[in-house]
Amino acid sequence: MDRNYSRDLLEAIQKADRAGANAVVDAWAMGRSFHRVIPELLAPTLETFGKLWAQGTGGVSLATGYVASKVAEDVLSRLLLESASRETPALPAKGPVLVGNVEDDFHPLGRKMVAAFLRAAGWEVHDLGVDIGPAQFVDMAEETGARVIGASAMMFTTAKNVAKLRDEIDRRGLRGRLQLAVGGAVFKLRPELVEAFGGDGTAASAAEAPALFERLWQQALTFEPAPGGMRP
Amino acid sequence: MTLDPPPPRCIACSIFRREIESLQASGALDLAVDYLPSMLHMVPDRLDTRLAASLTEAGAQGQEVLIAFGDCCGHMEDFRAKPGIDRTEGINCCEIILGREAYRRLRREGAFFLMPEWALSWRQVFMSQLGLLGTNAKTFMQEMHTRLIYLDTGIQPVPWQALNEASEYLGLPVEVLPVSLDPLLASLREAARSARRHDDR
């Protein structure tokens, strides 16, 4: 009987077993092109994991979420290494997009996980780090041509600073053309804050961020087409 | 003749228990205090529920309330905005103890803080609550932080054994930072005054 690699990978992630997860990836890659690992194994598994995470079921903890993002990074690193040796692109280029923790927010985990899942989904991600002011976000978006900013805030106090970022985007006349994705614990606990603080969308888990960014990127393009060469 | 209003009731995180008791014992603080378990920080929706119940109970008795917590649950700022209620200023217990500038500077440097109560229950926090077992604990902490800082409030002896075990398990060096209780006291007093001002509006 054929091995169910996706189920085995999911189980390893749910046990927060990074080495075990990578062993499943290795076993899958035997006799297959490693270039297929993301669309055929990793992405569908992370999608299932993301649903369990969003539902709060399936034994998903901080540790399992973290391990899932590390597995995504591990796969991407190997893919990039292999692509470099073959001189072929690892993934279709999407983006660029930005992620960062808003001003006064020093909780990097969620942001780092989002960045890992986005990169594994083929996005060019500029990770700005923690405690990023509104002007810094928007300056960097203008500099890089990013159409989506992912702003992370853990608590209500810091989530209020998302509203300042919204104001900065609007003040520069970029509303619509530059979409604002928001995330973090407080938005999960109080989804009404997404709209209240001016977010254009959120995802129930970091694993679902790629789908959100895809949707927001398309939304941004309806306001103004992207310059040549920049598209997902 | 008008009587002075009674001091507000304080609902505090147990992370501050020993420090508040010390301030009470020294006569610096005259407050009746109820404590909620600090481990509720790990389950914010449960903290929301427990705190709402405590505030409702206090409100039924007509008491002003001072919340000695950081912004640790989704509705903390809604609670704070109600008449007769205010909260200690600070994002979390560490900022309340350290003050804003020191907290921001040390967080920017990658510090992970251990308050005295949590230093003793680090296994529960990292292993049971966060599920960080084996190599994941080190990888995770080393990726997010540069060092552990124990905030020594001077109430109890520095728990060196627990700190060394946490340092070994989490793969980060540990420092002990002596801190004054003055910022906590000032924050409690200001929140108590402010809870009253709410009523004056």
UniProtKB/TrEMBL annotation, chain A:
The keyword Metal-binding applies. Residues 94-227 form the B12-binding domain. Keywords: Cobalt, Metal-binding. PROSITE patterns: B12_BINDING (PS51332). It holds the Pfam family B12-binding_2. InterPro entries: Cbl-bd_cap, Cobalamin-bd, Cobalamin-bd_sf, Met_Synthase/Corrinoid, Meth_synthase_dom. The keyword Metal-binding applies. SUPFAM superfamilies: Cobalamin (vitamin B12)-binding domain. This is Corrinoid-binding protein. It comes from Geothrix oryzae. The lineage of its organism: Bacteria, Pseudomonadati, Acidobacteriota, Holophagae, Holophagales.
TrEMBL record, chain B:
Pfam families: DUF1638. InterPro entries: DUF1638 (IPR012437). Residues 36-184 form the DUF1638 domain. This is DUF1638 domain-containing protein. It comes from Geothrix oryzae.
